Amino acid sequence: MQAVDRLIGLLAPQVCLGCGSEGSVLCSECIELYLEPVQSRCAGCHVLTENFRVCSKCRTWLPLNNIFIAGNYEGVSEQLVKSLKFEHKRQASEPMAYIMSTVMGNLSPSTTLCPVPTAPKRVRERGFDHALLLSNSIALILDLNSNSFLRRKSNSRQLGSGRKARIAQIKGEFETVDETKIKDMSIILVDDVMTTGATLSATARTLKEAGAKSVSAIIFSQKI
After folding, report:
1. Which DSSP string do the residues of 136-195 spell out, in sequence order?
2. In what order do the strands lie in the sheet with 145-146?
3. Which sign, positive or negative, has the C-alpha torsion 207, 193, 60, 170?
4. How far are the Cα atoms of 6, 50, 122, 133, 181 from residue 1, in angstroms, in the given order?
């Protein structure tokens, strides 16, 4: 697929979402200009915390140590996500992964990245798993391992607008691929957008039930 991407890039060069220059979906200059880091906060209630730590109150329903947020779902960030997921521009994952890699700080070499699994139907429609692309790219940048520990059981979609409804709908949706590889591991989930947190809650619980030592997440953008 990389060879196909390169060929497409030659025939129809990518145009920067920020300045319109050819060569990339978002050039390095526009990364610095448009994407400002957000303040460290709890992803559940948005109260300011150190190192994007989930506060004790929110951990009752959002069982992760930290949820690193690269930006808010708006402007160029929103355009990047839509380019990747709905316009099928795989190259959009490259600037997204770079930006995400700058948010987490120093990580233990034993930390393993794990993409939040996409519904099989969506993967077939796009021709790729966007979360897997992001996870593998971040792993290359930070010299970490990326492993798909989880899979979805169905193509079901979350239809409820509220957090409680979505948590109820997605309960039991994920399962582990090989529990023997998860036990005592420090895992960071990888995804593009966080809305209510229901998906992160379900995937984190599944990993912890399989014996993960700790679970955190890195998210490109959050809807607030």
Report:
1. HHHHHHHT-EE---EEESS------SSHHHHHHHHTT-EEES-GGGTTT-EEEEEEEEES
2. 67-72, 214-222, 186-194, 112-115, 145-146
3. negative
4. 9, 40, 18, 12, 28
**Euclidean distance between the first and final Cα of the chain, in Å?**
34
Closest CA to 69 of 207, 188, 159, 201: 188
Instruction: Write out the two tokens for 171.
Output: 């309960």
* Residue 68 near residue 218 (C-beta atoms within 8 A): yes
Helix spans in 36-115 (H) = 75-85, 93-101
Q: Which domains does the chain have, with CATH numbers?
A: 41-222 (3.40.50.2020)
Q: Is the dihedral of CA 37, 198, 93, 22 positive or negative?
A: negative
Q: Please tell me the pTM assigned to this model.
A: 0.90
Mean pLDDT computed over 9-26: 78
User: Are the C-beta atoms of 184 and 158 separated by less than 8 Å?
Assistant: no
- Dist CA 49 CA 45 (whole Å): 10
The 10s digit of each residue's pLDDT in 89-144 is 899 999 999 999 999 888 999 999 999 999 888 888 889 999 999 999 999 999 99
Instruction: Look at residue 158 in the predicted model and tell me its pLDDT.
Output: 58
Report the phi/psi class of residue 86: left, alpha or beta, with left for phi > 0 and alpha for psi in -120 to 50. alpha
Separation of alpha carbons 26 and 19, rounded Å: 8
The torsion defined by the Cα of 139, 158, 210 and 128, in degrees rounded to 10, comes to -30
